[in-house]
Amino acid sequence: MKAVIQRVSEASVKIEDIIKGQINNGLLVLLGIEEADTAEDSEWLCGKICRLRIFGDENGVMNLSVQESGGDILLISQFTLHASTKKGNRPSYIKAARPEVAIPLYQAFIKQLEKELGKPIQTGEFGADMKVSLVNDGPVTIIIDSKAKE
Fold first, then answer.
1. 141 is catalytic
2. pTM for this structure?
């Protein structure tokens, strides 16, 4: 699994001009699921996202997690994170999981993220044409790959 994590002061997702999910301070997480991903990848990545210390403490130092700061999470599925651009100019998405693999993992990821965060999260809709808006706070953007575990 790959995640692009952005600290935001606000973020929302629209589907057909209707707001599906919206948060103020917190994290916008773009999630790409590949064929080789497992429940273990999901659990590890959820824990990492919720405990990532990228929010300012009383001294303005990035020392708090989204949990500790009381922030929210907006999760968006994005298969294009697994694009391969090695050959030619048209990206290949062969590593991205097919819906029959990705959807159950995505749904389990939502439940695990809510469990780790201790409250419900906002989401987009798997496979939908979505319009995502955000105000990146900082800017702070971090990319995590569960296969690299860096």
1. no
2. 0.95
